[in-house]
Specification:
Radius of gyration: 11 Å
Shape: globular
Structural class: alpha+beta
Number of strands: 3
Number of helices: 3
Length: about 70
Protein backbone atom coordinates (compact mmCIF):
# COMPACT_ATOMS: atom_id res chain seq x y z
CA UNK A 1 0.00 0.00 0.00
CA UNK A 2 1.39 3.34 -1.00
CA UNK A 3 0.11 6.88 -0.85
CA UNK A 4 -0.58 8.79 -4.05
CA UNK A 5 -1.44 12.41 -4.66
CA UNK A 6 -5.09 13.09 -5.37
CA UNK A 7 -4.99 16.87 -5.71
CA UNK A 8 -3.06 20.00 -4.68
CA UNK A 9 -4.48 23.00 -2.84
CA UNK A 10 -3.30 26.55 -2.27
CA UNK A 11 -5.69 26.95 0.64
CA UNK A 12 -5.59 24.99 3.93
CA UNK A 13 -9.34 25.29 4.51
CA UNK A 14 -10.21 23.77 1.12
CA UNK A 15 -7.67 21.00 1.67
CA UNK A 16 -9.12 20.13 5.08
CA UNK A 17 -12.69 20.15 3.75
CA UNK A 18 -11.76 17.77 0.93
CA UNK A 19 -9.94 15.48 3.37
CA UNK A 20 -12.91 15.44 5.73
CA UNK A 21 -15.33 14.71 2.88
CA UNK A 22 -13.28 11.67 1.93
CA UNK A 23 -12.99 10.45 5.52
CA UNK A 24 -16.77 10.69 6.02
CA UNK A 25 -17.08 8.30 3.07
CA UNK A 26 -14.57 5.89 4.60
CA UNK A 27 -11.48 6.86 2.60
CA UNK A 28 -8.47 7.68 4.73
CA UNK A 29 -6.66 10.77 3.53
CA UNK A 30 -3.74 12.85 4.76
CA UNK A 31 -2.40 16.28 3.96
CA UNK A 32 1.26 16.68 3.04
CA UNK A 33 3.08 20.01 3.35
CA UNK A 34 0.21 21.68 5.25
CA UNK A 35 2.58 22.98 7.93
CA UNK A 36 5.00 24.38 5.37
CA UNK A 37 2.10 26.19 3.75
CA UNK A 38 1.34 28.04 6.98
CA UNK A 39 4.92 29.37 7.05
CA UNK A 40 4.37 31.26 3.80
CA UNK A 41 5.53 28.60 1.34
CA UNK A 42 2.05 28.33 -0.23
CA UNK A 43 2.87 29.48 -3.76
CA UNK A 44 6.03 27.35 -3.81
CA UNK A 45 4.78 24.30 -1.93
CA UNK A 46 1.04 23.64 -2.21
CA UNK A 47 -0.81 21.33 0.17
CA UNK A 48 -1.10 17.80 -1.25
CA UNK A 49 -4.07 15.60 -0.45
CA UNK A 50 -2.88 12.00 -0.39
CA UNK A 51 -4.87 8.75 -0.43
CA UNK A 52 -4.00 5.09 -0.65
CA UNK A 53 -3.39 4.00 -4.22
CA UNK A 54 -6.22 1.48 -3.94
CA UNK A 55 -8.66 4.28 -2.99
CA UNK A 56 -7.64 6.71 -5.73
CA UNK A 57 -10.49 6.03 -8.18
CA UNK A 58 -13.15 6.12 -5.45
CA UNK A 59 -11.70 9.37 -4.13
CA UNK A 60 -11.82 10.91 -7.61
CA UNK A 61 -15.49 9.94 -7.93
CA UNK A 62 -16.30 11.47 -4.53
CA UNK A 63 -14.52 14.74 -5.33
CA UNK A 64 -15.32 15.11 -9.05
CA UNK A 65 -14.63 18.84 -9.23
CA UNK A 66 -10.95 18.36 -8.38
Amino acid sequence: MSLVELVRFDNRVEADLARLNLEVEGIEAVLFDADMHSFGWGPIMPIRLMVLEEDLEDARRLLPTL
